[in-house]
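To fix ideas, we reproduce below one chain and its tokenised fold.
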Amino acid sequence: MSTHPASHVVSRPGRLLGADDVAELLGVPRTFVYALARRGDLPVVRLGERYVRFRAEALEEWIADQESTGVRRRRR
């Protein structure tokens, strides 16, 4: 895992984050981050066939979109 506190993970503009950074930020296991990415629920940057990274700005937007507005989202 990253040695940076979660509040500093997304502080640099244009930064690409690894799954460990995202897991720390969200407070979930890394495997869950990969599952969200595989389902297309989490925006990813694909680096070849093997690697995925997460753009800090896109992740912040995704988190904001996940905030509850009282309307329950329908699962796919």
